[in-house]
Write a structure and sequence with these properties.
By secondary structure, this protein is of the alpha+beta class. Helices cover about 40% and strands about 15% of the residues. It is elongated and about 100 Å long.
């Protein structure tokens, strides 16, 4: 039972004063939860907006090849049918491309002397010049055009930077020197690859040395290296 003194302490000593109202603070917990959820949402949106597309593509591409290697479906005699399935993501893994080009080379008589090698941070496909060009000629030999088409199809699905270099140690009639002849051959091969369906930029260069053709694939995407 409430004593008289307690009652008088409520409101300036008035005995008939009402007891103090109860303070309810439960709404503050709900408001704090709402603020926390909104803060989490905006932090998440900021994190997603900062993802680098190139790094995400590289990671997704690497996981895709690791979990489902595309080359398992490529068998002898069938590479020319499978080259169109090369992944279209830019900066395709060079290890995968090396396997693809080796299979294409085995299925193409004009490319069976080709060598595919990972040199540092780039992939190279090398083959003797006589497998692509006729003697003393800058144009691609008719017999080599199926192989050029196969290469164009294999490389057209990637975004890596590409270059073709033709080396030679002798000049053909009508050319100033060996370098001029090699450059003409490189330009001819680059044009043949483009005509066969290769759309991305391709740098063509000539060099001095034993007659050979080298196609260089860089690990990054973009224009010609």
């Amino acid at each position: 039972m409430t004593g008289g003194k307690a009652l008088t302490d409520w409101e300036g000593g008035a005995i008939d004063a009402h007891p103090p109202a109860e303070v309810r603070s439960a709404w503050m917990l709900t408001f704090a939860d709402l603020v926390s959820l909104m803060l989490t949402f905006f932090v998440l949106m900021f994190a997603l907006s900062g993802v680098r597309e190139d790094r995400f593509r590289e990671m997704a591409d690497a996981l895709s090849h690791a979990l489902n290697p595309p080359m398992q479906a490529a068998t002898s005699g069938g590479a020319l049918k499978n080259v169109a399935h090369a992944p279209s993501a830019p900066g395709t893994d060079l290890g995968y491309l090396a396997s693809l080009l080796e299979t294409v080379a085995k299925d193409s008589p004009a490319l069976r002397r080709a060598e595919v090698a990972l040199i540092g941070d780039r992939l190279e496909l090398r083959l003797p010049a006589e497998t692509v060009f006729a003697a003393n000629a800058a144009a691609v030999a008719p017999a080599a055009r199926p192989a050029v088409t196969a290469l164009a199809q294999a490389l057209s699905g990637i975004g890596n930077r590409l270059a073709v270099t033709v080396a030679g140690d002798a000049a053909a009639p009508g050319y100033a020197d060996a370098w001029d002849f090699s450059l003409a051959r490189a330009a001819s091969l680059a044009n043949a690859l483009r005509a066969a369906g290769l759309a991305q930029p391709l740098r063509a260069t000539g060099a001095a040395g034993p007659a050979a053709v080298t196609i260089v694939v860089s690990p990054d995407r973009g224009g010609a290296p």
